């Protein structure tokens, strides 16, 4: 089966190669940056680079929109597709109904719409095994759903049928679990390096915290630190240390208050 990929970012980089490893052929790659499209196509077996979004003569059966959330609907509006095409986006935030409406407004032919959302953080050139990545699938009809489940099952053993509302909640949770956590690590690095210490000193702590949370029935069960202990004197000292950095002080205070509220101080 032929598949066309719209996008050349981190997800497109991983997804296109994983699909080929699963036995599918990536026939076409489109990207606004032609150089990136050429580079990605060069990593694949026989993909051609598309210079526009006119896929009306394409032999692909599946078209995967792997672009930023804000660009999804614009791509839908501009795409020209062959009859009976199946088009999916990979966004955690965009509703399936938004995609359907975009195609209904801008296209005469009916389009079979779906969602193919891998719940994972992706970085180019960092190897990752798709076999265990949760693939969240949603479709406008049962036939399209079955088709996407078949494609997904060739790549991963973790297939979930998730509605748009559920996916929104999952995406919010993912931002807390991944993006915010990583940002906090970044802030921690800045703090220790401002005192001429190495970030490596925190890595065993980060590793143990992560492992405890994964193994716990609930991450809150293994919460430690001055906020959960009600150690007011320590919290006060920390806030005094952060007195000259309003942003860090706000983050510290917000997190401390949240932990206190959670554990019912």
Describe this protein's structure:
This protein is of the alpha/beta class. The chain has 2 domains: 2-162, NAD(P)-binding Rossmann-like Domain (Rossmann fold); 168-262, Orthogonal Bundle (N-(1-d-carboxylethyl)-l-norvaline Dehydrogenase, domain 2). It contains 10 helices and 8 strands. It has helices spanning 10-21, 34-42, 72-78, 96-106, 142-153, 164-194, 203-215, 226-229, 232-241, 246-262, and strands at 2-6, 25-30, 48-50, 62-65, 86-89, 112-118, 135-139, 159-161. Strands 3-2-1-4-5-6-7-8 form an 8-stranded mixed sheet, sandwiched between helices. Helix 3 packs parallel to helix 4. The longest helix has 31 residues, at 164-194.
Question: Helix and strand layout, with pairings?
Answer:
Blueprint: E1 2-6, H1 10-21, E2 25-30, H2 34-42, E3 48-50, E4 62-65, H3 72-78, E5 86-89, H4 96-106, E6 112-118, E7 135-139, H5 142-153, E8 159-161, H6 164-194, H7 203-215, H8 226-229, H9 232-241, H10 246-262
Helix pairs in contact: 3-4
Short précis:
The chain is 48% helix and 14% strand.
User: How many separate domains make up the residues?
Assistant: 2
Strand tally: 8
- Beta-strand proportion: 5-15%
Query: Roughly what is the average pLDDT, rounded to an integer?
Result: 96
Helical amount:
40-55%
CATH architecture of the largest domain: 3-Layer(aba) Sandwich
Give structural attributes.
N-(1-d-carboxylethyl)-l-norvaline Dehydrogenase, domain 2; 2 domains; alpha/beta; Rossmann fold; 48% helix; 10 helices; eight-stranded mixed beta sheet; 265 residues; single chain; 14% strand
């Amino acid at each position: 089966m032929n598949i066309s990929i719209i996008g050349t970012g981190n997800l497109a980089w991983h997804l296109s190669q994983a699909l080929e490893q699963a036995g599918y052929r990536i026939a076409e790659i489109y990207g606004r940056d032609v150089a990136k499209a050429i580079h990605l196509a060069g990593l694949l077996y026989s993909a051609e680079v598309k210079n526009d979004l006119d896929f009306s003569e394409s032999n692909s059966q599946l078209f995967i929109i792997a672009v930023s959330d804000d660009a999804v609907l614009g791509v839908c509006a501009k795409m020209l597709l062959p009859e009976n095409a199946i088009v999916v986006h990979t966004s955690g935030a965009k509703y399936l109904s938004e995609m359907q409406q975009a195609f209904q407004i801008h296209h005469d032919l009916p389009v079979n719409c779906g969602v193919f959302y891998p719940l994972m953080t992706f970085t180019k050139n960092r190897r990752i095994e798709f076999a265990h990545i949760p693939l969240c699938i949603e479709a406008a009809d049962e036939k399209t759903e079955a088709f996407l489940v078949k494609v997904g099952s060739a790549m991963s053993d973790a297939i979930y049928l998730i509605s748009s509302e559920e996916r929104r909640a999952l995406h919010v949770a993912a931002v807390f679990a991944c993006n915010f956590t990583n940002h906090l690590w970044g802030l921690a690095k800045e703090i220790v390096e401002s005192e001429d210490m190495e970030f490596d000193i925190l890595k065993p702590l980060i590793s143990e915290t992560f492992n405890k949370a994964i193994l716990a029935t609930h991450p809150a069960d293994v919460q430690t630190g001055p906020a959960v202990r009600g150690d007011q004197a320590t919290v006060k000292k920390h806030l005094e240390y952060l007195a000259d950095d309003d942003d860090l002080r706000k983050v510290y205070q917000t997190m401390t208050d949240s932990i206190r509220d959670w554990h019912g101080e």
